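Hello Y.,

Per our agreement to keep a running log of every chain we model this quarter, I'm adding this entry. I've kept the format consistent with earlier entries: sequence first, then predicted structure.
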Amino acid sequence: MSATASTGTTMRAVQLDVWGGPERLVVRDVARPVPGPGQVRVRVEAASANAVDRRVREGYLSAQFPLPYTAGSDFSGVVEAVGEGADLPVGAPVFGALWPTSGAYAEYAVVDAALLAVKPDGVSFEQAAALPVAGITAWVAVVDDGQVRPGQRVLVQGAAGGVGHIAVQLAKQRGAYVIGTASAANHDFIRDLGADEVLDYRSPDLPGLLADLDLVIDGVSAAGLAAFYPKIRRDGLALSLFDPPLPPPAGIRAQLVATAAIADGPVRPRLAALAKLVAGNQLTVAVTASYGLDEVATAQETRVRGKAVIIP
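Predicted structure for the entry above:
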């Protein structure tokens, strides 16, 4: 993937002409976007690598995205141009999500101002870029759908991942007893985030080690989520972060935390609340790897602890 340096009317962007594997990603010069009414153009300082971006590249929701497709769902940067009616000024440091559109893996992005929040002092552009998709998904799972209360037992499958490591912290802040699963190499990381108990996701009888769960948040697989149904208390909830879960037995609920939830409800207040926690050292956003635009394919195919970011 390569492209020449951009000019005043163009920009470098990571695009797809055909859905498929990482080899389909191409960096090229494209026209610099112009903000419409209610929109702003942001000079991108950092963007985030998400599982959903990889799935979209492979054709997930392909009917929603025309080709050529500029990849990337969330980012941070500085407002450079403002469309009519947009309520963010030129020069404002911002972060947010482009979902249900795309275009974060580029030097500039145009987005509805309502999907952005002002980045507070004390939060880096890298942290801010890593927060929108993972943070709002975790917020919806723990706060909105899960409605976690003190004393509840919460299992987070894939607790070292982008959504998982934030969900662990949000559930703990709400007074839950939090159990996280991850590889042995990530156990100390999850304990440091506040988990009360950490289990190896490779354990052959992982469900057998658990009981009396009020909420399961599964960032691994919808099929695997069903193995925990017998361990969930009556009126408990199982949440899948990827695909619709298998039907649960009577007495418990199971549902998908859809990526579409990112753009549902009050996006800016959610982003502001999450960033305030980060700025106040009450929430850790673990950015553990960074890549350039020419390395997006590697970023999408590499599993990291916490989050990886793209620096244009």
